[in-house]
């Protein structure tokens, strides 16, 4: 509802196995219609935070051992991942994970069945995705394994959009891509946000590009929140880049 942020993470702690404390006392908020960047170096805990939210840490022997996660005002700390997808909370995993033997269009369709749509509705969802990613329309009959890294990232985002999400958790979309392609992807994310009202929580090591497109940003260091603020304010702080973000 309107008075709740889309997502509220309160003081969570995430433990892998019995002893690896990957995230401690992390709090963050994604307001309705916001793009929030989750920044930090390799191993800072970005992926773990996203997977804690989407309930996928469980698949990696991790668990949320303290704190609370609220989605649209409801406690989802111990919810099931498939239920969250049906409710519009969808993660795009790091590394894209396309089905390489399926065509681009078949990959997109795999994301479309959560709401048991009619054929016409599926078609309409596909057309909406092709509107934002014309490149995917051109490549729709190509096996995903034969498309470029940028196109595979677009497939992964497009597949998530087929579930008609309200909040997309996007893990390291820039990974391994040329700067021009990264900009293209972030621009499309910005348009989806502005035109479709989809909120995004984007984990990125590439702070510069993420801060250019996000409204708000949080910085993780060694599993803890090291800084946060408006993207504009953080981008203006030189110390942030030097202390937490390396050369990115
Ligand atoms: P990257 O971008 O490289 O994934 P990250 O900021 O997303 O970095 P995480 O992947 O969340 O960082 O890792 C945070 C910490 O948790 C690291 O110390 C990592 O070694 C540890 N970790 C991550 N996944 C597991 C796992 N499945 N089992 C045990 N430890 C893990």
Structure explained in plain terms:
- There is one protein chain.
- The chain is of the alpha/beta class and 248 residues long.
- It has ten helices and ten strands.
- Strands 6-7-8-3-9-10 form a six-stranded mixed β-sheet, sandwiched between helices. Strands 2-1-4-5 form a four-stranded antiparallel β-sheet, covered by helices on one side.
- Helix 3 (104-110) runs parallel beside helix 6 (149-161).
- The chain starts with 6 loop residues before the first strand and ends with a helix.
- The model has no long low-confidence stretch (mean pLDDT 93).
- It binds adenosine-5'-triphosphate.
- Adenosine-5'-triphosphate binds next to strand 2 and helix 1.
Short description:
Keywords: Amino-acid transport, ATP-binding, Cell membrane, Membrane, Nucleotide-binding, Transport. This protein has 248 residues and is of the alpha/beta class.
Helices and strands in order, then pairings?
Layout (H helix, E strand, L loop, with lengths): L6 E10 L3 E11 L4 E5 L6 H8 L8 E10 L2 E2 L5 H6 L2 E4 L11 H7 L8 H14 L1 H5 L10 H13 L5 E5 L7 H18 L2 E6 L2 H7 L2 E6 L2 E7 H5 L2 H7 L4
The site of adenosine-5'-triphosphate has 14 residues, from strand 2 and helix 1.
Number of helices in the DSSP assignment: 10
Structural class: alpha/beta
Strand content: 25-35%
Please tally the β strands and state the result. Answer: 10
Compute the average pLDDT: 93
Q: Give me the Rg, rounded.
A: 17 Å
Q: From N to C, what is the helix and strand string?
A: EEEHEEHEHHHHEHEHEEHH
The hetero molecules present are: adenosine-5'-triphosphate
Helical fraction: 25-40%
Which strand order does the major sheet show? 6-7-8-3-9-10
Distance between the termini: 37 Å
The backbone outline, from C-alpha atoms, is globular
Low-confidence stretches: none
Largest sheet: 6 strands, mixed
Keywords: Amino-acid transport, ATP-binding, Cell membrane, Membrane, Nucleotide-binding, Transport
Family: Belongs to the ABC transporter superfamily.
Pfam families: ABC_tran (PF00005)
GO molecular function, one term: ATP hydrolysis activity
């Amino acid at each position: 509802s309107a008075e709740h942020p889309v997502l509220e993470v309160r003081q969570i702690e995430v433990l892998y196995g019995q002893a690896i404390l990957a995230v401690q006392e992390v709090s963050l908020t994604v307001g309705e219609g916001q793009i929030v960047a989750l920044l930090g170096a390799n191993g800072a805990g970005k992926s773990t935070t996203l997977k804690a939210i989407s309930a996928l840490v469980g698949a990696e022997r991790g668990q949320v051992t303290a704190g609370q996660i609220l989605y649209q005002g409801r406690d989802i700390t111990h919810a099931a991942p498939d239920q969250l997808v049906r409710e519009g909370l969808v993660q795009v995993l790091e590394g894209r994970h396309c089905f390489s033997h399926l065509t681009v269009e078949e990959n997109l369709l795999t994301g479309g069945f959560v709401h048991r749509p009619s054929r016409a509705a599926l078609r309409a969802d596909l057309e909406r995705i092709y509107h934002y990613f014309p490149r995917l329309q051109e490549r729709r009959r190509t096996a995903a394994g034969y498309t470029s890294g940028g196109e595979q990232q677009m497939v992964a985002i497009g597949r998530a959009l087929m579930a008609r999400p309200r909040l997309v958790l996007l893990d390291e979309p820039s990974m391994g891509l040329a700067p021009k392609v990264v900009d293209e992807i972030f621009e499309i994310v910005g348009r989806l946000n502005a035109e479709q009202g989809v909120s995004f929580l984007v984990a990125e090591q590439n702070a510069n590009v993420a801060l250019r497109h996000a409204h708000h940003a949080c910085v993780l260091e060694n599993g803890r929140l090291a800084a946060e603020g408006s993207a504009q304010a953080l981008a203006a702080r030189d110390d942030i880049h030097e202390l937490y973000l390396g050369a990115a």
